[in-house]
Amino acid sequence: MLEIKQTNDGSATLFNPELNEHYHSTFGAYNESMHIFIKNGLLSSLNNNIGILEIGFGTGLNAILTYEIALQKNLTIKYTGLELFPLNIEIISLLNYEKLIKPSNIAAFHKMHQLEWNIKTILNNQFHFEKINADLNQYAFTDSYDLIYFDAFGPDVQPEMWSGTIFKKLFATLNSKGTLVTYSAKGLVKENLREAGFTVTRLQGPLGKRHIIRAIKS
Ligand SMILES: C[S@@+](CC[C@H](N)C(=O)[O-])C[C@H]1O[C@@H](n2cnc3c(N)ncnc32)[C@H](O)[C@@H]1O
Description:
This protein has helices at about 30-40, 60-75, 90-95, 105-115, 165-175, 185-195; strands at about 5, 10-15, 20, 50-55, 75-85, 120-125, 125-135, 145-150, 175-180, 200-205, 210-215.
């Protein structure tokens, strides 16, 4: 049974007691998302037209923060969130994410969660959206992407998600110069990313985390 937790920046997250894993950093869910996926992923891209794949759609926090930036910076984004265990709408309504975003974007957040799985939807001209209900270990990608938000549970609890096999599959879905960003800078993660063909750079982490990873298909 998932539990709601407050993180240190006031934003909520979920805790999965069976895995003993939080969905976000307990130092700040919002800060973590903004630092890793928005600042060092989305905003580091030089492109105005970006295809994003998120591994582990979960609460939709990364998706709605990306949506906000798309509108703010006039970007055109095709966003795909892959998720094996969709969360029910009741638990999403207990998170305080509406307070983190502009009131005018709250309806889009609700829509992301209400939409059916496995259907491509035009949320607006700047944001095309799809949620895929599938297991990354089994899924065969048909589309290609410029940027991957790799936000699986940690490599200690889900080592198969951080394997060379998975990173090779993700490498193959990326366009040339495509980027993967993730929160774990563990030695084995870097090794497996390099084995898959990525050029790996360690960047400064958000509060509570020394380093994060940006990996580029060069
Ligand atoms: C650390 S949480 C992050 C969730 C999300 N990015 C967010 O901001 O809420 C990891 C997510 O990966 C999902 N997941 C776990 N195993 C998966 C798999 N094999 N394939 C796809 N998603 C998976 C979990 O259900 C969970 O939603």
